[in-house]
Amino acid sequence: MSDYQPILPRFCGPWAAALQFLACFSLIFHPLPLSSTWVDTDADGILDSWQPNHSGPIFTLLDLDAQSTDIDGDNATNEEERLYGSDPFVYDTDGDGLSDGDEIHLAIQQAGKAYSLTAWDSNGDGVSDFDDFHNFFAVTYPNSQLPDFPGTSY
Fold this sequence. Notes:
Elements: H1 7-10, H2 14-29, E1 37-39, E2 49-51, E3 59-60, H3 61-67, H4 78-84, H5 100-110, H6 129-133
Antiparallel strand pairs: 1-2, 2-3
């Protein structure tokens, strides 16, 4: 085994610095997409179109409604998803355990909760909106971070 070499030293040639520079340059001038968002395509001040990951196809509200008035089946119409800023293709945009429809109709409209459909812990107390809605305060999450258990969804 005298000819054994670790992997990394084999890739430290003179071209490695250039490759690292190119990678950093491309991330600075073409950053990775952060998230999907509603955008105002006709500059009238109303968010009217859904753009996944800040690139790719843009779906107008009419395009979405032509497919279904509730594409993700969460009981929130595409119009409601637009009004509340949630993702029309995701059942539970903020991952708090309440579907977007339940969060709009039960928590916000009926119970008067000040929940956000894009934050799993809307008031920042370390208790998810799901637990807060069901008055279950025994479980808190340190630093407002949900645990990462394989195969779970919140």
